[in-house]
């Protein structure tokens, strides 16, 4: 063992020198005087040289002690600085967080969530990416992701955020041009705008529910898109009907820009989750972001 391997022995030696006596150093370090004496002897044994000469009145550093003191003080200073940085990381929200989401949700709701979190914690910086492959993003080093749908994998923890409610909507202009859309047996033949992802039901079939009743029918979409924001724009233009999430169209429904088709019917809600890698210890900033996002999105998806 090197004389630099045990910081306790180094701290004992430096405290004795800085305090002027073993008894004073023992009080400072809150150990007994015999304990401190044994630690000094152990250090001198490792150094194979005396570091302090003691007599009945005072103590003196040997030449070896003078040389050793500067190195010991420098090493202890580095250790104290490292510990301080660790504590600051533990107790102050600062540093970078890598987050991912699907593009539509990320560009709207998640972006507002992130802005709110940074405003409350100015020392944090967040990088937002987009992906429909959450496990890939976790493997790439992202700290957390906000996803729609169920994700079960032993490499991640998934915390529920609630459900994404979805229902069919159309523009008033479209409704005015097509009679009979207040009946579910009439909507199958209308112009539909569909989402291409099979994760959300696919582009060739619509499944609606009303209480315990389920209605399933095939559609021939006039437009297929990978994102719900582009679908909403097409619906606003009066192109057709689309099943869209409530978080995306709520303001349009309030303003009257869009209306619900068959208000008693809705598509199956999708679970929303925040996912993060299985780790024994997450940085405080990431844990705080996960808690903040959970409360924020449960309110949005109420």
UniProtKB/TrEMBL annotation:
SUPFAM superfamilies: Periplasmic binding protein-like II, Winged helix' DNA-binding domain. GO terms for biological process: DNA-templated transcription. Gene3D superfamilies: 3.40.190.290, Winged helix-like DNA-binding domain superfamily/Winged helix DNA-binding domain. Residues 5-62 form the HTH lysR-type domain. Keywords: DNA-binding, Transcription, Transcription regulation. Pfam families: HTH_1, LysR_substrate. GO terms for molecular function: DNA-binding transcription factor activity; sequence-specific DNA binding. Belongs to the LysR transcriptional regulatory family. This is LysR family transcriptional regulator. It comes from Trinickia dabaoshanensis.
């Amino acid at each position: 063992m090197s004389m630099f391997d045990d910081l306790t022995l180094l701290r004992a030696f430096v405290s004795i020198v800085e305090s002027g006596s073993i008894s004073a150093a023992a009080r400072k370090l809150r150990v007994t005087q015999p304990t401190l004496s044994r630690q000094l002897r152990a250090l001198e044994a490792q150094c194979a040289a005396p570091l302090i000469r003691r007599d009945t009145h005072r103590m003196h550093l040997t030449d070896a002690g003078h040389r050793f003191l500067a190195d010991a003080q420098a090493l202890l200073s580095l250790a104290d600085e490292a510990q301080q940085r660790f504590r600051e990381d533990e107790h102050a929200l600062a540093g970078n967080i890598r987050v991912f989401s699907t593009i539509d949700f990320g560009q709207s709701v998640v972006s507002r969530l992130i802005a709110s979190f940074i405003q409350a914690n100015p020392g944090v910086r967040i990088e937002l990416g987009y992906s429909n492959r959450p496990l890939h993003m976790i493997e790439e080093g992202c700290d957390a992701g906000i996803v729609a749908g169920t994700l079960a994998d032993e490499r991640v923890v998934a915390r529920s955020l609630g459900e994404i409610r979805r229902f069919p909507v159309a523009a008033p202009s479209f409704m005015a041009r097509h009679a009979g859309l207040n009946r579910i047996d009439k909507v199958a033949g209308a112009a539909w705008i569909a989402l291409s992802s099979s994760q959300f039901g696919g582009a060739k079939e619509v499944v609606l529910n009303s209480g315990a009743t389920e209605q399933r029918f095939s559609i021939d979409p006039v437009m297929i898109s990978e994102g719900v924001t582009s679908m909403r724009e097409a619906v606003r233009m009066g192109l057709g009907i689309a099943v869209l999430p409530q978080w995306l169209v709520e303001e349009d429904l309030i303003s009257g820009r869009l209306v619900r088709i068959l208000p008693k019917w809705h598509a199956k809600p999708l679970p929303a989750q925040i996912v993060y890698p299985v780790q024994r210890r997450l940085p405080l900033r990431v844990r705080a972001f996960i808690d903040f996002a959970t409360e924020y999105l449960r309110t949005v998806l109420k």
